[in-house]
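Hello,

Our lab assistant flagged a job as stuck in the queue for most of the afternoon. It eventually completed. Since we weren't sure the result was trustworthy after the delay, we are filing this so someone can double-check. Below is the sequence as submitted and the structure that was eventually returned. Let us know if re-running is recommended.
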Amino acid sequence: MVNSVKVVSGNSEIKGNSALGMKLLSQARKLEQDGEDEVTWVVGYSLKFQGCHLVQQWNNDADEDDELRIEKKRLIRFRLCPTDSCTVSDAAGCGDGYGDYVLDLNTYIQAYYEMAEKQIEYDCEYYLNNQCDCNDDDGKGDDFDRDDCEYNCFYNAGKEQCIDEDQENFDVEKYLACGQLELENENRKLEENEEEEIQYYVGPYCAEQGGGVFLGVFNEDSCSQFADDYEGKTTFEELTGESLPYSSESLVGMECFSCQEIDNNEDNEDNEDNEQVWEECEAIYNSAGKCESNLAEGIMENPNSNACAYIEGVKITRSDGVVFSTEPRTNPVVTSFIVIFAMAFAAMCFYVYYLRTRLGVKKDTLM
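-- returned structure --
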């Protein structure tokens, strides 16, 4: 059996998933233009993760006294690069003809997760059908085992991600948005001696320098407050006896994900006329804040640059693969006042010193 694995590395095109696409589209903001949203141009572009940013905001849903009044909002900044010039090795992805975008982490990560799952499934099935001779036909012996054949084929090719693994104990997909940690009764090691049952939540969070997205354990339902000093990893291990998946491996990679939907019809001779933008990519685009001032001229009729100032405020740069948030720009007016004040203070100090010196001289003369 071919296994669907959730995170994929590599430069690839990804087939969409209608159910998730419709779910994300329901959250999308309408573009600021008349008529139906036109995003067909995105078919020639690829998503490139730029970094993760954390902001704090007032929690309007906090009703109880023990609920957090200030919650953390996590944002993903990404870029749409022309597919033919988008590179994995370049942290920016591309240097021209791109658009910059910002979106809440949960919406982006759910779409990314589904994209990776679909891509792995497609790649594994393609390899199985074209490289593995595992069909139980008349040429196989009585002791032929299809499952063993598939396992050996994938393993020998270094495609362990295609091999079935037991994922029943922890379903990552449930926690791509902050979700309550579900534990079996025998795994509640920390709660056995508690009079009141403790509730824990698992969800994605931004790495300290913004270069990745990891899963952590939290003690409240907005996933803003970690359950321990180690992003909840210790709590999870004590509760389950296992390591928390994706606590040290990022859920989001640096690959270029093409927005062109995979065409499974190999007999289609007119592929260029049937190129489709797959729905997850369309949903991500429609939901995001946009800065399209760097898109090539003529790509779209009305580029949207309403979020350029905001995106510039959370601009992220990279050095040796590590993400650093850009330092805030200095205000020239404030800087001028500081300089003037410092000069005036220095002048006043000099004048006081001058007066004391003059008075000291006169005093010595009188004596």
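-- support follow-up --
The delay was a queue issue, not a problem with the job. The result is valid. The chain has seven helices and eleven strands. Confidence is low (pLDDT under 50) at residues 1-37, 317-330.
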